[in-house]
Design a protein that fits this description.
The chain is α+β, with helices and mostly antiparallel strands. The chain is 54% helix and 26% strand.
């Protein structure tokens, strides 16, 4: 009992050392090590051994973060008031910079995303936001990626989620879309009439060069009328039509 009591302090010291010194990091984690307040190295994944009371580790995840950017009130270049929100995809590629260069990179990236979203959407017209959304996404991504590079962060994607328009603008766009559909319908109808007129002109030219074709067409029409049984047929000799045809 006395021998165990003598070794008890040593066992407590060893247990404290193991508890304070051993760290285990997952595959997607890295540890930024500080010794007496000075940056030493970035370690991980796996087993990490620290010097108790001297070393301090700040753990950082390398997984991609999907951050939701809340709705921002924006006035576009053509003076339309809208609300826009987006989602930002980014990840830490240099853990030491994300700890040393910025106090809270998540908060800083969120604030930078909101201001960049407002500035980019405010510099373009509403039609560009609606019809050229991919270009707007790329522009926001390039600005964010350039500014967060100093923090050791890589912005891999930006996607605009919702564009909320005022009620008056929605009505105006609906009227515009309806007018556009009517215009296309009229153009298609006119194109069909033009093509039909061209075909009739070609048919008339063929019949004028071949009078027998008119006779065949006349007989075909008589047959269709006789088959329907809804009209009384009074055949007229073809010679009579030829005699009365204007010279």
């Amino acid at each position: 009992m006395g021998a165990f009591s003598s070794f008890l302090p040593l066992l407590l010291i060893v247990a404290f050392f193991l508890f304070s010194a051993i760290r285990i990091l997952n595959e997607y984690e890295r540890g930024v090590i500080f010794r007496l307040g000075r940056y030493v190295a970035t370690k991980g994944p796996g087993l990490i051994i620290l010097i108790p009371l001297l070393d301090k580790m700040v753990k950082t995840s390398l997984r991609t973060v999907a951050m939701d950017v809340p709705h921002q009130d924006v006035i576009t270049k053509d003076n339309v008031s809208i609300k826009v929100n987006a989602v930002i995809y980014f990840r830490v590629i240099e853990p030491s910079k994300s700890v040393l260069a910025i106090e809270d990179f998540l908060f800083a990236t969120s604030q930078l995303s909101q201001t960049t979203l407002r500035s980019v959407c405010g510099a373009v017209e509403l039609d560009q936001i609606l019809s050229q959304r991919e270009e707007v996404n790329m522009q926001i991504q390039s600005i964010l990626d350039a500014q967060t590079d100093a923090w050791g962060i890589k912005v891999s994607g930006v996607e605009l989620k919702h564009v909320d328009l005022p009620t008056e603008m929605q009505r105006a766009m609906a009227k515009q879309a309806e007018a556009e559909r009517e215009r296309r319908a009229k153009i298609i109808n006119a194109e069909g009439e033009y093509q039909a007129a061209e075909r009739l002109t070609q048919a008339a030219e063929i019949i004028s060069r071949n009078p027998e074709a008119l006779s065949l067409r006349y007989l075909q029409t008589m047959r269709e009328m006789a088959t329907s049984g809804q009209a009384t047929i009074l055949p007229i000799p073809l010679d009579f039509l030829r005699l009365n045809r204007p010279q």
